[in-house]
Amino acid sequence: MQPETCFKRFQAAYSNSPKPHRDTTMKSFTQITAIVAPLDRSNVDTDAIIPKQFLKSIKRSGFGVNCFDEWRYLDHGEPGMDNSRRPLNPEFSLNQPRYQGAQILLTRKNFGCGSSREHAPWALDDYGFRAVIAPSFADIFFNNCYKNGLLPIVLSEEQVEQLFQETYANEGYRLTIDLAQQTVTTPSGAAFHFDITEHRKHCLLNGLDEIGLTLQHADEIKHFEQQRQASQPWLFHNT
């Protein structure tokens, strides 16, 4: 049997397989103006974002209804439950009518700590969030956000506190996030700058995850494999 080349295997895995980890391509992020939902807690861990019993699926979709499950509902959640029939916690901010449709999550320091589950950004994205603003993030969660089209924004604690106060004081409070300009702008026009590497910025603006970046070089990879087969044909003989 003749062995497949690395590139053929890669193409087959990406193009022809069920793609359990890739239901859709990564969404690009350019600019949004959206409602802000406050989550006034520090050290929110990934088990709070998406509890462990929901980690059996390796698809990126379907986690939104169980995002913050233990805070969002009054009962204990399990996979397969009809979430529309579960009792909601009226005290939880995301359940309050004024924050429905929010695409920006505002929270406190060390967001996303705990285990390294990539399901956490999947759940936030599936809920509808495009960006999370906090004074700091856990490193692995921070990196996973960029790989899944979710923008984590670090602002100072003073800036975050200002945004919390304005969010509480104004129903329907919205922020404008401009990734190209790297700014978060309030309704009054105050603009806060945030840092991001040029590589991560490029990937988000263009909707490119690691596989997308690799496929930009598909012709070069194919050419390399063709040259390799010509120069080392014994590697490709039937065995």
How would you portray this structure in words?
The protein is of the alpha/beta class. Mean pLDDT is 88; it is low at 16-24. A hairpin with a 4-residue loop joins strand 5 (174-178) and strand 6 (183-185). The N and C termini lie close together (6 Å). Helices cover 33% and strands 13% of the residues. The protein has nine helices and seven strands.
Can you tag this structure with a few keywords?
13% strand; seven-stranded mixed beta sheet; 239 residues; 9 helices
Quaternary organization: single chain
Largest sheet: 7 strands, mixed
Radius of gyration: 21 Å
The residue fraction in helices comes out at: 25-40%
- Assess the beta-strand content as a share of residues: 5-15%
Structural classification = alpha/beta
The 3D shape can be described as globular
Q: Give the termini separation.
A: 6 Å
Neighbour order of strands in the largest sheet: 4-3-2-1-5-6-7
Order of helices and strands: HEHHEHEHEHEEEHHH
Q: Mean pLDDT, rounded to whole units? A: 88
**Which residues sit in consecutive blocks of at least 5 with pLDDT less than 50?**
16-24
How large is the count of helical segments?
9
Q: How many β-strand runs?
A: 7
